[in-house]
Protein backbone atom coordinates (compact mmCIF):
# COMPACT_ATOMS: atom_id res chain seq x y z
CA UNK A 1 0.00 0.00 0.00
CA UNK A 2 1.31 3.48 -0.85
CA UNK A 3 1.68 5.83 2.11
CA UNK A 4 1.22 9.52 1.32
CA UNK A 5 2.87 12.21 3.44
CA UNK A 6 1.71 15.79 2.85
CA UNK A 7 4.24 18.50 3.53
CA UNK A 8 4.03 22.28 3.10
CA UNK A 9 4.87 23.42 -0.41
CA UNK A 10 5.10 27.05 0.63
CA UNK A 11 4.77 29.31 3.61
CA UNK A 12 6.53 29.53 6.93
CA UNK A 13 6.82 25.79 7.60
CA UNK A 14 8.26 24.68 4.27
CA UNK A 15 12.00 25.00 4.92
CA UNK A 16 11.98 23.65 8.50
CA UNK A 17 9.96 20.73 7.27
CA UNK A 18 12.39 19.84 4.50
CA UNK A 19 15.24 20.11 7.03
CA UNK A 20 13.58 17.68 9.43
CA UNK A 21 13.08 15.09 6.69
CA UNK A 22 16.72 15.49 5.73
CA UNK A 23 17.84 14.91 9.35
CA UNK A 24 15.45 11.98 9.62
CA UNK A 25 17.27 10.28 6.74
CA UNK A 26 14.26 10.78 4.50
CA UNK A 27 15.51 13.09 1.74
CA UNK A 28 12.66 14.32 -0.44
CA UNK A 29 13.07 14.33 -4.19
CA UNK A 30 10.59 16.09 -6.45
CA UNK A 31 9.08 13.93 -9.12
CA UNK A 32 9.00 15.58 -12.54
CA UNK A 33 9.85 19.26 -12.75
CA UNK A 34 10.40 21.87 -10.01
CA UNK A 35 6.76 22.88 -10.03
CA UNK A 36 5.55 19.36 -9.47
CA UNK A 37 3.25 18.77 -6.49
CA UNK A 38 4.41 15.22 -5.97
CA UNK A 39 7.64 13.82 -4.64
CA UNK A 40 9.18 10.69 -3.23
CA UNK A 41 11.53 9.82 -0.40
CA UNK A 42 14.85 8.29 -1.26
CA UNK A 43 15.15 4.83 0.26
CA UNK A 44 11.46 4.65 1.19
CA UNK A 45 9.76 2.60 -1.51
CA UNK A 46 6.00 3.01 -1.54
CA UNK A 47 6.04 6.43 0.10
CA UNK A 48 4.72 9.39 -1.83
CA UNK A 49 5.03 13.08 -0.92
CA UNK A 50 2.21 15.52 -1.65
CA UNK A 51 3.18 19.20 -1.51
CA UNK A 52 0.24 21.26 -0.24
CA UNK A 53 -0.35 24.39 1.85
CA UNK A 54 -0.53 24.02 5.65
CA UNK A 55 -4.29 24.55 5.68
CA UNK A 56 -4.89 22.09 2.84
CA UNK A 57 -2.82 19.52 4.72
CA UNK A 58 -5.07 19.65 7.77
CA UNK A 59 -8.10 19.20 5.51
CA UNK A 60 -6.61 16.25 3.63
CA UNK A 61 -5.65 14.48 6.87
CA UNK A 62 -9.17 15.06 8.13
CA UNK A 63 -10.78 13.42 5.14
CA UNK A 64 -8.17 10.65 5.04
CA UNK A 65 -6.90 11.38 1.55
CA UNK A 66 -3.35 11.48 2.91
CA UNK A 67 -1.85 9.22 5.58
CA UNK A 68 0.49 11.68 7.27
CA UNK A 69 0.91 15.43 7.17
CA UNK A 70 3.06 18.11 8.68
CA UNK A 71 1.02 21.11 9.69
CA UNK A 72 0.09 23.31 12.65
CA UNK A 73 -1.88 21.81 15.52
CA UNK A 74 -4.14 24.89 15.41
CA UNK A 75 -5.21 24.15 11.84
CA UNK A 76 -5.93 20.50 12.63
CA UNK A 77 -7.98 21.23 15.76
CA UNK A 78 -9.84 24.06 14.05
CA UNK A 79 -10.51 21.97 10.97
CA UNK A 80 -12.25 19.00 12.62
CA UNK A 81 -14.33 18.08 15.63
CA UNK A 82 -12.88 15.44 17.98
CA UNK A 83 -9.45 15.68 16.40
CA UNK A 84 -7.81 13.18 18.75
CA UNK A 85 -10.26 10.49 17.74
CA UNK A 86 -9.60 11.03 14.05
CA UNK A 87 -5.87 11.74 13.98
CA UNK A 88 -2.77 10.96 15.99
CA UNK A 89 -0.32 13.73 16.83
CA UNK A 90 2.83 11.61 16.40
CA UNK A 91 5.50 14.24 17.05
CA UNK A 92 5.79 17.93 17.93
CA UNK A 93 8.45 19.30 15.66
CA UNK A 94 9.74 22.40 17.45
CA UNK A 95 8.96 25.02 14.80
CA UNK A 96 5.91 26.97 13.64
CA UNK A 97 5.14 28.00 17.21
CA UNK A 98 2.06 30.21 17.63
CA UNK A 99 -0.45 30.65 20.43
CA UNK A 100 -4.16 30.95 19.71
CA UNK A 101 -5.28 33.63 22.17
CA UNK A 102 -8.21 35.74 23.33
CA UNK A 103 -7.24 39.41 23.17
CA UNK A 104 -9.21 42.49 24.21
CA UNK A 105 -8.52 46.23 23.89
CA UNK A 106 -5.80 47.38 26.34
CA UNK A 107 -8.16 50.09 27.57
CA UNK A 108 -10.49 47.46 29.06
CA UNK A 109 -8.70 47.92 32.37
CA UNK A 110 -11.12 45.81 34.39
CA UNK A 111 -10.90 42.82 32.06
CA UNK A 112 -7.94 40.53 32.73
CA UNK A 113 -9.42 37.04 32.83
CA UNK A 114 -12.03 34.94 31.04
CA UNK A 115 -14.26 35.32 34.12
CA UNK A 116 -14.05 39.12 33.73
CA UNK A 117 -14.91 38.71 30.07
CA UNK A 118 -17.92 36.58 31.03
CA UNK A 119 -19.14 39.43 33.27
CA UNK A 120 -18.71 41.92 30.45
CA UNK A 121 -20.52 39.65 27.99
CA UNK A 122 -23.48 39.24 30.36
CA UNK A 123 -24.65 42.84 30.11
CA UNK A 124 -22.88 43.88 26.92
CA UNK A 125 -26.09 44.14 24.90
CA UNK A 126 -27.82 46.28 27.52
CA UNK A 127 -24.85 48.62 27.58
CA UNK A 128 -23.84 48.71 23.94
CA UNK A 129 -26.90 47.63 21.98
CA UNK A 130 -25.26 44.50 20.51
CA UNK A 131 -23.85 41.23 21.76
CA UNK A 132 -20.11 41.02 22.47
CA UNK A 133 -18.58 40.37 19.06
CA UNK A 134 -15.47 38.25 18.49
CA UNK A 135 -13.50 38.48 15.23
CA UNK A 136 -11.72 35.26 14.36
CA UNK A 137 -10.99 32.64 11.77
CA UNK A 138 -10.84 30.05 14.59
CA UNK A 139 -14.57 29.73 15.17
CA UNK A 140 -14.49 26.11 16.36
CA UNK A 141 -11.71 26.72 18.92
CA UNK A 142 -13.45 29.92 20.04
CA UNK A 143 -16.79 28.20 20.61
CA UNK A 144 -15.20 25.34 22.53
CA UNK A 145 -13.20 27.69 24.72
CA UNK A 146 -15.90 30.28 25.36
CA UNK A 147 -18.95 28.05 25.66
CA UNK A 148 -17.72 24.67 26.88
CA UNK A 149 -14.70 25.67 28.96
CA UNK A 150 -15.78 29.05 30.31
CA UNK A 151 -19.58 28.96 30.13
CA UNK A 152 -19.75 32.18 28.12
CA UNK A 153 -22.76 31.98 25.82
CA UNK A 154 -23.61 35.60 25.08
CA UNK A 155 -21.32 36.49 22.23
CA UNK A 156 -21.32 36.50 18.46
CA UNK A 157 -18.52 35.45 16.13
CA UNK A 158 -17.76 37.44 13.00
CA UNK A 159 -15.53 35.54 10.65
CA UNK A 160 -12.33 37.35 9.84
CA UNK A 161 -10.03 36.07 7.15
CA UNK A 162 -7.30 38.66 7.47
CA UNK A 163 -6.11 41.61 9.58
CA UNK A 164 -8.10 40.24 12.52
CA UNK A 165 -6.18 42.38 15.02
CA UNK A 166 -7.51 45.49 13.28
CA UNK A 167 -11.16 44.55 13.80
CA UNK A 168 -11.71 46.23 17.20
CA UNK A 169 -10.22 49.54 16.05
CA UNK A 170 -12.20 49.32 12.81
CA UNK A 171 -15.40 48.76 14.79
CA UNK A 172 -16.22 45.42 13.16
CA UNK A 173 -15.72 43.46 16.43
CA UNK A 174 -15.12 44.11 20.14
CA UNK A 175 -12.42 41.51 20.78
CA UNK A 176 -10.45 38.91 18.82
CA UNK A 177 -9.22 35.32 18.85
CA UNK A 178 -6.11 34.91 16.73
CA UNK A 179 -2.60 33.54 16.72
CA UNK A 180 0.33 35.40 18.08
CA UNK A 181 4.01 34.54 18.05
CA UNK A 182 6.11 37.59 18.99
CA UNK A 183 3.10 39.60 20.21
CA UNK A 184 4.07 42.61 18.13
CA UNK A 185 0.88 42.67 16.01
CA UNK A 186 -1.25 42.64 19.17
CA UNK A 187 0.81 45.45 20.72
CA UNK A 188 0.65 47.52 17.55
CA UNK A 189 -3.14 47.23 17.70
CA UNK A 190 -3.38 48.03 21.44
CA UNK A 191 -4.72 44.62 22.35
CA UNK A 192 -3.81 42.49 25.40
CA UNK A 193 -4.05 38.74 25.92
CA UNK A 194 -6.22 37.70 28.88
CA UNK A 195 -4.18 36.03 31.65
CA UNK A 196 -6.01 32.72 31.13
CA UNK A 197 -6.80 33.45 27.50
CA UNK A 198 -4.37 31.07 25.77
CA UNK A 199 -6.62 28.62 23.94
CA UNK A 200 -3.86 26.53 22.39
CA UNK A 201 -0.08 26.53 22.21
CA UNK A 202 0.40 25.37 18.66
CA UNK A 203 3.42 24.20 16.71
CA UNK A 204 4.11 22.14 13.62
CA UNK A 205 3.32 18.46 14.18
CA UNK A 206 3.64 15.18 12.35
CA UNK A 207 -0.01 14.10 12.20
CA UNK A 208 -1.37 10.71 11.13
CA UNK A 209 -4.88 10.03 9.90
CA UNK A 210 -6.16 7.10 11.98
CA UNK A 211 -6.81 4.41 9.35
CA UNK A 212 -7.41 0.69 9.76
CA UNK A 213 -4.92 -0.03 7.00
CA UNK A 214 -2.10 1.43 9.14
CA UNK A 215 -2.42 -1.27 11.77
CA UNK A 216 0.63 -3.48 11.59
CA UNK A 217 2.10 -1.65 8.58
CA UNK A 218 5.85 -1.49 9.28
CA UNK A 219 6.27 1.55 7.00
CA UNK A 220 3.95 3.59 9.22
CA UNK A 221 6.13 2.84 12.26
CA UNK A 222 9.30 3.46 10.28
CA UNK A 223 8.17 6.94 9.23
CA UNK A 224 7.17 7.92 12.78
CA UNK A 225 10.47 6.66 14.25
CA UNK A 226 12.54 8.37 11.58
CA UNK A 227 10.90 11.74 12.17
CA UNK A 228 11.15 11.38 15.97
CA UNK A 229 14.84 10.53 15.66
CA UNK A 230 15.43 13.89 13.97
CA UNK A 231 14.06 15.99 16.85
N1 LIG B 1 3.37 34.42 12.98
C1 LIG B 1 2.60 33.49 12.47
N2 LIG B 1 1.57 33.84 11.70
C2 LIG B 1 0.76 32.93 11.12
N3 LIG B 1 0.90 31.60 11.27
C3 LIG B 1 1.91 31.19 12.04
C4 LIG B 1 2.80 32.09 12.66
N4 LIG B 1 3.69 31.40 13.33
C5 LIG B 1 3.37 30.10 13.16
N5 LIG B 1 2.29 29.97 12.39
C6 LIG B 1 1.63 28.71 12.02
O1 LIG B 1 1.77 28.48 10.65
C7 LIG B 1 0.63 27.80 10.13
C8 LIG B 1 0.10 28.56 8.95
O2 LIG B 1 1.10 28.57 8.00
P1 LIG B 1 0.93 29.28 6.60
O3 LIG B 1 0.44 30.68 6.83
O4 LIG B 1 2.18 29.07 5.86
O5 LIG B 1 -0.18 28.34 5.99
P2 LIG B 1 -1.53 28.54 5.24
O6 LIG B 1 -2.56 29.08 6.20
O7 LIG B 1 -1.84 27.26 4.57
O8 LIG B 1 -1.14 29.58 4.17
P3 LIG B 1 -2.12 30.36 3.23
O9 LIG B 1 -2.77 31.35 4.16
O10 LIG B 1 -1.17 30.98 2.26
O11 LIG B 1 -3.05 29.33 2.66
C9 LIG B 1 -0.37 27.73 11.28
O12 LIG B 1 -0.33 26.42 11.84
C10 LIG B 1 0.15 28.74 12.28
O13 LIG B 1 -0.12 28.40 13.61
O1 LIG C 1 2.68 37.90 17.16
P1 LIG C 1 3.25 38.26 15.82
O2 LIG C 1 4.68 37.87 15.68
O3 LIG C 1 3.04 39.71 15.50
O4 LIG C 1 2.53 37.38 14.71
C1 LIG C 1 1.14 37.27 14.59
C2 LIG C 1 0.65 37.72 13.26
O5 LIG C 1 1.33 37.04 12.22
C3 LIG C 1 0.38 36.49 11.33
O6 LIG C 1 0.12 37.32 10.30
P2 LIG C 1 1.04 37.37 8.99
O7 LIG C 1 0.85 38.70 8.40
O8 LIG C 1 2.43 36.94 9.29
O9 LIG C 1 0.52 36.26 8.05
P3 LIG C 1 -0.85 35.63 7.66
O10 LIG C 1 -1.10 36.10 6.29
O11 LIG C 1 -0.55 34.14 7.73
O12 LIG C 1 -1.92 36.03 8.65
C4 LIG C 1 -0.85 36.27 12.19
O13 LIG C 1 -2.04 36.21 11.44
C5 LIG C 1 -0.83 37.41 13.14
O14 LIG C 1 -1.50 38.52 12.60
From TrEMBL:
InterPro entries documented for this protein: ATP_PRibTrfase_cat, ATP_PRibTrfase_CS, ATP_PRibTrfase_HisG
Coiled-coil stretches noted in the UniProt entry, renumbered to this chain: none
Single annotated GO MF: glycosyltransferase activity
First-tier enzyme category under EC: transferase
Documented EC number(s): 2.4.2.17
Reaction it catalyzes: 1-(5-phospho-beta-D-ribosyl)-ATP + diphosphate = 5-phospho-alpha-D-ribose 1-diphosphate + ATP
Keywords: Amino-acid biosynthesis, Glycosyltransferase, Histidine biosynthesis, Transferase
Presence of the UniProt keyword Transferase in the record: yes
Listed pathway(s): Amino-acid biosynthesis; L-histidine biosynthesis; L-histidine from 5-phospho-alpha-D-ribose 1-diphosphate: step 1/9
Domain ATP phosphoribosyltransferase catalytic: start-end pairs: 54-228
Gene3D superfamilies per UniProt: Periplasmic binding protein-like II (3.40.190.10)
Function text: Catalyzes the condensation of ATP and 5-phosphoribose 1-diphosphate to form N'-(5'-phosphoribosyl)-ATP (PR-ATP). Has a crucial role in the pathway because the rate of histidine biosynthesis seems to be controlled primarily by regulation of HisG enzymatic activity.
Similarity field: Belongs to the ATP phosphoribosyltransferase family. Short subfamily.
Name of the protein: ATP phosphoribosyltransferase
Organism lineage: Bacteria, Pseudomonadati, Pseudomonadota, Alphaproteobacteria, Hyphomicrobiales
